[in-house]
Amino acid sequence: MRFMFVGDSMTIGRAGDYTWRYRMWQHLCASFGGPFEIVGPRTAVYDTFAEAPEAPDAPVSHDYADPGFPPDARRHLAGWGEGWQHMAPVIGETVATHRADILLVSLGLIDLGFYTDSTETAANARRFITAAREANPHIRAVLLPVIPNVRAESDAPFAAECDRFNVLLAKAVADLDSPSAPLLLASRPEAYDIHRDTYDGTHPNASGEHRLAGAFADALHQAWGVGGPYRAAAS
């Protein structure tokens, strides 16, 4: 089975992070019970400390918190500042090239914060799903709603857009779910607290990484019997 992580800055992570992708890889190693691969066109984390003249577009790093994280397991399709509108045009080709079976998708916050409103963002999510299925008619996907973040705490209109998008995303999953290409809407991470589980009110720290990985792992286990219940590994 071939898993692909798709996401924004919370998924790619910054230099020095473990990333929730790492936590999920650990979980699959411990509980999947069969062969699996992590696939995708990228392997880096984002270097937030790079100076613009040296890397003006997308400064990247391979400085993971655990240098023993295998290169093959670092693969993903995630980008700092990228959202549904960036991923919808490329997901079809990426799924076809890397032969993904299951997509684990965490997108939406960056779209609503900088690019599109909830209606447009939901339309891009539907485009994404359609394109992925054109590349693999049996693709499965787990989609995470927009989770709590610091801007939503102080910006009521933005918080309302996040809530509205989550409703529209749930509707898209209900509308587009198919026995041949099933969709899951993951639950928001249980007890997620931006003051405890992030380093800046948005991006996950170690405890937040575990909570994000747990949301995907538990959805996979409960709905499809993939892997087991999430058990956080020590690190």
Description:
By secondary structure, the protein is an alpha/beta fold. It has a single domain (2-224), classed as Rossmann fold (3-Layer(aba) Sandwich), CATH 3.40.50.1110. The protein is built from eight helices and eight strands, in the order E-H-H-E-E-E-E-H-E-H-H-E-H-H-E-H. The strands form two sheets. Strands 1, 2, 5, 6, 7 and 8 form a six-stranded parallel β-sheet that branches. Helix 3 (84-98) runs parallel beside helix 5 (118-135). The radius of gyration is 16 Å and the shape is globular. Mean pLDDT is 94; it is low at 52-56.
Outline the secondary-structure elements.
Elements: E1 2-7, H1 9-12, H2 20-31, E2 37-38, E3 45-46, E4 60-61, E5 77-78, H3 84-98, E6 102-106, H4 109-115, H5 118-135, E7 140-144, H6 150-154, H7 156-176, E8 183-185, H8 206-224
Parallel strand pairs: 1-2, 1-5, 1-6, 6-7, 7-8
Antiparallel strand pairs: 3-4
CATH architecture: 3-Layer(aba) Sandwich
Q: Whole-number radius of gyration? A: 16 Å
CATH topology: Rossmann fold
Helix content: 40-55%
Distance between the termini: 26 Å
In the predicted model, the low-confidence regions spanning at least 5 consecutive residues are 52-56
Give the helices and strands as they follow along the chain.
EHHEEEEHEHHEHHEH
Total beta-strand segments: 8
Largest sheet: 6 strands, parallel
